[in-house]
Amino acid sequence: MTVTSKLIDYQDTDGNHFEGVVYIPENAKNSSVPAVLVFPAFRGITEFEKERGHQLAELGYFAFVADVYGKGVRPTERAEAFATMGPLVSNRVEKLKPRLFAALESLKTFSEVDQSKVAAIGYCFGGLCVLDLARYNAPLKAVVSFHGTLKPIPDLPLDPINATAVQVHHGDADFHIAKDQVDGFHEEMRARQADFVFVSHAKAVHAFTEPEADSFNAPGIGYNEKAARRSWRATVGLFHEVFA
């Protein structure tokens, strides 16, 4: 399927400016189609997330690769990326939340989008982002986290997650996401009465979906082709279900 892409400027309620990338499938020319937000890993928007956006559009979905860091903020070094991400993770309600909803609101402005059929996926830091959107009961049919941070939002009431299917793909050998996070996430989702699926992929470590992960030369980070393939297949299956 033919796919058109373009850069999109938008801003949040705090006046921060962002530059995302949208991927519009050919079938959206004649009618509105389901849409998927893509939230990047800790480095911000890279070719990996752009490729995911393109793949989603090839499946017939409108894809929006969100910019959480800000227009022109594209860390190139690991330390720089963590320094950029840190303040957002430390204050998820006041600093991160407006940026998440800004992307969602920007997505809704496109006439090609069927606003009743929107989902979100995220990688690493982006996994935390999409799970937070579910915690806030954002109007999403589904969220999918890949090797994402699972910690709850401090002091946020455990309100039910009513309308969003939650799917999590976790590396069973990922020591960056400790067992207490995994156990706590299960407890939180049960308390929230969520429709959730948690998949633990054998032998997979952190960042297992990213082909470049082995080049990071960081302990406990690496690509796992089998886990990447299986998690993507499960994601596409979920979208077929919730967008039906």
From TrEMBL:
Residue ranges of domain Dienelactone hydrolase in the record: 18-242
InterPro entries documented for this protein: AB_hydrolase_fold, Dienelactn_hydro, FrsA_esterase
Pfam family, one: DLH
GO molecular function: hydrolase activity
PANTHER family reported in the protein's UniProt record: DIENELACTONE HYDROLASE DOMAIN-CONTAINING PROTEIN, DIENELACTONE HYDROLASE DOMAIN-CONTAINING PROTEIN-RELATED
Protein name from the UniProt record: Dienelactone hydrolase domain-containing protein
Natural source organism: Caenorhabditis nigoni
